[in-house]
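Lecture 7 notes. Example A: sequence first, then its structure tokens.
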Amino acid sequence: MGITETFSGKLKEKGVQLPRFTGKKTAGNAGEPDEITKKIERAHKNRKGIRRFFKHPFDVLTEKPVNILIASGPLAIFVFFWGLFFAAQSRRAGGLFAAMIIDDFIVLAVLIAIIPVAVLDFWEDRRMHNLEASLPNFFRDVAGMNDSGMTLPNAVQLVAGSEYGTLTPHVRRLNNQMSWGVGFVEGMYSFGKKLGTPLADRSVDLIAKASGAGGDISQVLHAAAKDTFEIVNLADERRNNMVIYVIIVLVSSAVFLFVIAILVSTMAMAGAAAQAAGAGGQFIGKIDLAGYKRLFSHAAMIQAFFSGLAAGQMGEGRLIAGLKYSAIMVYITWVVFQIFIF
């Protein structure tokens, strides 16, 4: 039984009669079906593509972390070209990319593009982790209530008063659906769809198929609770074990910066000593120290960006998770060069 049939049945129990369309066009209802159909079609169009973006821009941008690139990407490109224009005001076209300030605008553009993605991905990862960590307790509580003789709707209603963190609103929504007569399997599918995590989809699919096959729903819930608990624990254990490798990647980037700083200072001191000895033009006069500093800054920032991606892949199993490390390391590298090296 679907939600529509359940709602209609509840209204009939209260003596409310819904108008029925007979299919015959009369003076009163001749255009009503066509008008309703047009409204439904317009509503479906507004939920897809560019129309949905203009109608609900914030929802579209925050639906997935990468969606924020729709806004941050063009903004980053604008900042980059604005930097080119700004550099062109102080340099001739032939020496445009020789201006040091263009490097600053490139770094700023990269940070503008990746920081919103990194922040949204971090929030989404925390949300998914909190939801999945609460699933075993929810399944276990419902199974325990069902073992005590309660029906599934009563068990869900009782546990809906408990606190499951970020999972609590979803549990209460499931309770509201089942209180209106929605079946347990259908309600669980809706529950899993709203959670939107791989583990929730896996658990809901296991419960729904076992329940549809006529198995003991209490045992199925206990099995789902055990399965989700083990998966969450394995994910946490993997993340904890990989922390040391993430630290190694971050420290290696810091060591690379330190080596560059020592190398640049050594070259500067050697040049000063050669100049004092009167041999600067012969030995070190042809070395462009400013050019080497700029080359080292490019190498350090590229190394910082990709080291952050490697740290995310090793620590959390996702490249996009490394964007937060990349943003932090690129910014630190830029600050170090601006203050201590340039």
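Example B, a different protein, same format:
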Amino acid sequence: MRKPSKSAPPTGNRPRELRTELARKIASFVGSSEKLITGIPGLLLTRRTAPTAPAAATYEPSLAVVAQGRKQAILAGTTFIFDESRYLLTSLDLPVICNVIEASEDVPYLCFVLKLEMSVVRELLSREEVPQAQSDSPAMATGETTAELLDPCCRLINLLNTPQDIPFLSCLIQREIIYRILRGSAGARLRAIATLGDQSHRTAKAIAWLKANYAKPLRVDDLAQIASMGVSTLHHHFRALTAMSPLQYQKQLRLQTARGRMLVDGLDAASAAFEVGYESASQFNREYSRFFGQPPMRDIRTLRSPGAPLLELVSDRQSAS
């Protein structure tokens, strides 16, 4: 696909036309920047002109629709590729390793990212016409990017041209987008997580607590009480959703946060370690080296060096951008 222009998209199949239109709109609004936090609640537009180095990030519940290029997210060893043909759906806060793998000046990576509000998901699920299905997949999945999904994505971006319409129309179009996701197979886990009383929903409560309190000592018994489950049941469902144990989840959140504090805010390794909940700087150094491949300060120096590849940082909003 060529670089988006203001010319009309070629005639042909509907999904290709809509993808071309979406790419043109994203490129127009983002311009030469790498991202745009729009005036539409929950909508982020991103652009990259070169592949990026793998970086740790925590993806929040969101939908990522790629108009051009390709990106990957690795969750506990499983790789999810999302590109022009497949979107990425994240149903929980999940720590991943991610990077853009296809992008250039002529064909930049362009992505539409919409944060998901569980209250809206639950409202749609209360209607009989949304199918219900069970899922054993983790809380991250890819699905086919259809014309029925691309069309409301384009219409949502169009609202940036008429800001006065955003307060009323954006919520209606976002509901249509979520409806399209819920009707597809990739939305099965999202349906389970949003369903009150479901095991996935109760496990999600424990995951949300752990994400908000990662710096505190982890007591799995307390976590099980939050989820109203037995410890073994919690472990089973926690791993099913996140592909990792509660302790591994906490460790990744701690290490990612510490890395960000050192890289962005200039903290030294010991200060970052204690801030994210480590009681031992040496333990932090060991676990950091195993996860990122080298000791903390050497890693930060490498990331800051002039010859270092672009890093896929997620800062203002942690989503699959």
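Note on Example B: Residues 5-12 have pLDDT under 50 and may be disordered. The chain has three domains: 14-193, 196-244, 248-304.
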